[in-house]
Amino acid sequence: MELAKIVARQMAADVKRGFSEELQSDADRLAQLTRDTVGLVGEVGEFANLLKKVELAFRVDGYEGYSLEIASADLREELADAMIYIIRLSNVLGGDIENDLLEKMAKNDERYRHLEE
Predict the structure, then answer these.
(1) Does domain 3-116 have CATH number 2.60.40?
(2) DSSP state string for the chain
(3) What residue spans define the domains of the chain?
(4) 117 band by pLDDT with thresholds 50, 70 and 90
(5) pLDDT at residue 1 above 80?
(6) What is the dihedral angle through the alpha carbons of 65, 40, 15, 13, rounded to the nearest 10 degrees?
(7) Does the pLDDT at position 102 exceed 90?
(8) Are 11 and 87 in contact (CB under 8 A)?
């Protein structure tokens, strides 16, 4: 599925769940950006916490924790949660996350071209 279709699906789901797609003022947009940023940071924190436990289990004898293989599905789920927040943030800012991502990748291609030689 194309990223644009994923974005449209997420935004339609948000509307069905009662999230307003029509933020009328900068105050409304700022409030939504703040809420979604807190949500994003929370999801990244959950990813980091699980990764910390995997790393401890790998490095510390006797530490009861998950292997990377076992934790991978949960880690991917946290990344997906984070991506949903990124989609929402981009939407509030009037962005096109697919286009913005491609533009940034092109900038990075130019910036780091010297490393590819």
Answers:
(1) no
(2) --HHHHHHHHHHHHHHTT--S---SHHHHHHHHHHHHHHHHHHHHHHHHHHHHHHHHHHSTT-----HHHHHHHHHHHHHHHHHHHHHHHHHTT--HHHHHHHHHHHHHHHTGGGG-
(3) 3-116
(4) confident
(5) no
(6) -40
(7) yes
(8) yes
State both tokens at 51: 């990764």
Whole-angstrom distance, CA of residue 44 vs CA of residue 51: 10
pLDDT tens digits for 11-63?
Answer: 999 999 988 778 889 999 999 999 999 999 999 999 999 999 999 999 999 99
Tokens representing 1?
A: 């599925």
User: Are 76 and 51 contacting, i.e. CB atoms less than 8 angstroms apart?
Assistant: no
Structure-token match 């990344």, residue found:
79
pTM: 0.90
Report the alpha-carbon distance of residue 91 to residue 88 in Å, rounded: 5
CA 104 – CA 25 distance, rounded (Å): 28
